[in-house]
Write a sequence for this structure.
């Protein structure tokens, strides 16, 4: 496997991506890191990017601008730009791309499915945004993370179940007013041109299941294939990797056609 670090995909903003290229690959994948849009980086995705590369994917892992210095739609714009760059950079993979992401990265992978029509897998994706915040006006937003949370492995972060103050804090840290909250909610962008979606979540984790239910209905109403996997316990995102990996990989291989190169 060849790993290319810090490849510039957006010259104006000097945004970079890591690329995991197996000797032979048949499909491409954009792998989007989590972190509530305020932390995290492409460096945290090395382990899972390697797993996808070993499964025959050319994997592009982009960095994107973070809040609060860069509010919505900065991260979304960067995600779309990273896909458009990869699509042109690897012409042999046109029509053979998908996306994967966890937590905030799961939100961004959903956006790629909705806006670029590609298959995507989202683990614990942030979906219910404006409606949830308005329904939880009494919740006091608070960053409840421990001081060393940035040094924790992805699979160890946010594994303790419901945490409404933190959920509200990082959403409003990224989308701080009503208009941004509305615009940041992906549900409004579902259409008949959306790509197939695999949505995973734990039954008692801190990301509310309401988003999955709303998105699944919208996808069904638009005849978009989708699959939902609900997992016992409080595990979040890559914390349930073992439970979701096999079915996620099968979903991507089912819906991303192999390239003909």
């Amino acid at each position: 496997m060849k790993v290319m670090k810090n490849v510039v995909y957006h010259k104006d903003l000097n945004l970079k991506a890591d690329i995991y290229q197996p000797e032979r690959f048949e499909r491409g994948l954009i792998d989007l890191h989590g972190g509530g849009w305020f932390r995290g980086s492409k460096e945290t995705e090395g382990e899972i990017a390697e797993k996808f590369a070993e499964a025959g994917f050319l994997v592009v892992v982009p960095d994107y601008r973070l809040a609060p210095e860069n509010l919505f739609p900065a991260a979304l714009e960067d995600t779309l730009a990273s896909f458009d760059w990869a699509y042109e950079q690897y012409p042999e993979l046109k029509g053979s791309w998908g996306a994967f992401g966890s937590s905030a990265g799961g939100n961004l992978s959903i956006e790629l499915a909705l806006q670029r029509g590609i298959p995507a897998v989202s683990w614990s994706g942030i979906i219910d945004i404006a409606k949830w915040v308005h329904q939880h006006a009494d919740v006091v937003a608070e960053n409840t993370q421990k001081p060393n949370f940035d040094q924790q492995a992805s699979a160890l972060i946010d594994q303790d179940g419901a945490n409404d103050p933190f959920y509200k804090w990082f959403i409003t840290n990224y989308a701080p007013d009503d208009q941004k909250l509305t615009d940041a909610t992906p549900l409004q962008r579902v259409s008949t041109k959306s790509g197939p979606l695999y949505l995973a979540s734990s039954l008692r984790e801190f990301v509310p299941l309401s988003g999955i239910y709303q998105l699944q209905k919208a996808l069904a109403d638009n005849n978009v294939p989708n699959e939902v996997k609900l997992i016992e316990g409080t595990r979040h995102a890559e914390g349930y990797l073992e439970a979701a990996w096999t079915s996620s990989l099968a979903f991507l291989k089912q819906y991303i056609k192999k390239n003909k190169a």
Observations:
- Residues 55 and 249 are 8 Å apart (CA to CA).
- The radius of gyration is 17 Å.
- The first helix runs from residue 46 to 54.
